[in-house]
Amino acid sequence: MKTQEMQAAYERWCKCANADLQEQLAGMQEDDKAIEDAFYRDLEFGTAGLRGVIGAGSNRMNVHTVGRATQGLANYLLANAGASGSAPSVSVCRDSRNMGQEFVRTVACVLAGNGVHAYLYPRIEPTPALSFAVRDLGCDAGINVTASHNPAEYNGYKVYGPDGCQITTKAANDIQAAIESIDIFDDVKAMDFDQAVEAGLVSWIGEDTLDRFIDAVAAQSVDGSENGEAGVGASDGAASGAASAAEQSGLKLVYTPLNGTGIECVERILKRIGIDDVTVVPEQAQPDGNFPTCPYPNPEIREALQKGLELCESVGADLLLATDPDADRVGIAVRHGDEYRLLSGNEVGILLLDFVCQMRLASGKSLDGCVAISTIVSSTMPDALASGMGFQMRRTLTGFKYIGEQIGMLEAAGEADRFILGFEESYGYLSGSHVRDKDAVNASMLICEMARWYRSKGMDLVEAIESLYERYGYYGNKVISVKYAGADGAEKMSKIMGSLRDAQSAPKQIAGMNIERTVDYSKGVEMPVVNPGSDAAQVLPAANVVEFQLEGGNKLIIRPSGTEPKIKAYMFTRGESAEASEDLLGKLEAAAHEILG
Predict the structure, then answer these.
(1) Of 12, 212, 259, 470, which residue is 20 to 30 A from 297 by alpha carbon distance?
(2) pTM of the entire structure?
């Protein structure tokens, strides 16, 4: 957008934006850079919906950008309504972030203004509870007001399809096209909130839906205790068999919801499986969109877990669980000797996959035909587990919606029971088909059951992952990201990705290792599968990803983020020892930084 266009857009917002934004707009008047950053583009509706900094302007999260996106979604739903002629409906949820309640009310008012029924959770709830509600209530879509693990100044807006998955790329493109045809001030239809409630176009999601969600999570219990029945099918108040199993295991837990949504559902499910010795980090127990003790509430980073680690030291906990603000991801730290060791998302995914498989075998069931699903940017070690244990391992594009899509395909074929686990390296896990997104409530349950089971064998989870490395090899993983902020950031990112695809400028070696194969996912690539059996081959959707397969089973993948102005580099190594794998990772990291400038 040209400078004069940005200035014109700014002046129009000064005339038309609501009163709450006028002070911010006035503060930009003499600041050309602030105007440029707020108005150089419209906040893009990508495959994950909207995400951006809260504030005034077309490139910000505010009631007007949220209203415009919702009008586009309403137009899309009405245009694609079925032959029944019934009005579409949408489930709506939010996490603890600032402006979340205002954005939910905006969503509800715009949906109602278009005759679309909005079902609202009456309080903050986890992302998986939204995915569950969409199918439980038979809705046509879902909207989750969340920015996941981003810093406090962000909020976002994720859209889900009727299957409970985040929308497909095609649906996102169609909704984006609908949004682009809408004037942000003139074309958005809205009904007064109270009138919408009175008219029956806005209603509250009942406690029964949340109860069914908790029941569905509990049904995925594999109970690793020696008693064999801990908590499965028990009520929240009873959990009759679970208490004795918990006492036997003696598992002591510290939990932090990082000032987000997890505490209600995680505490309920832990009680169901008999984990009663739980200490919640007091500074992070209550919802707070400012995240005062962890400005970057991401369970992947140690700083976010620091309060929890300090409390673990104080109470002598065996395990720390930390769910992110919308409780779809979970990070852990494990007491190992005199220290607490953080396990990576890949390590927890590998441990869970092995644990679920072991529990299945112990119950007398076979792994033949079972399906585990991960992404192309997650650890390659599960391939070795699949080869050794006999289950099928599928690889999707980055984003849990692609894992959810695979679960949906199995369910549609009447084969949902084949699915055993889905995970991605960014701390997202799911067992069962009760939802179509990563589920930290489900994962917290499985992690505690797993820790309890290993404890009964005299092992902690650090020792457990080490035993798997000794068996399958030392697989190393690391992710780095480089930000390209500002109006020219997108152009820089495009040039880098273009250079990697150009035969003249693409690297010939990386970190001194020969490139055995280059995979350009923008052209569509056959889905990688270990033990495909009789299942038909699938082609992955085109994606802006370049993969360099290096000698020795090592790998480097370059991928721009779909939600932030940055490029990520994913490094994968395999060595005969931890030291050898770590040494290779260091060399790949240096090479990746050089590639990304």
Answers:
(1) 212
(2) 0.92
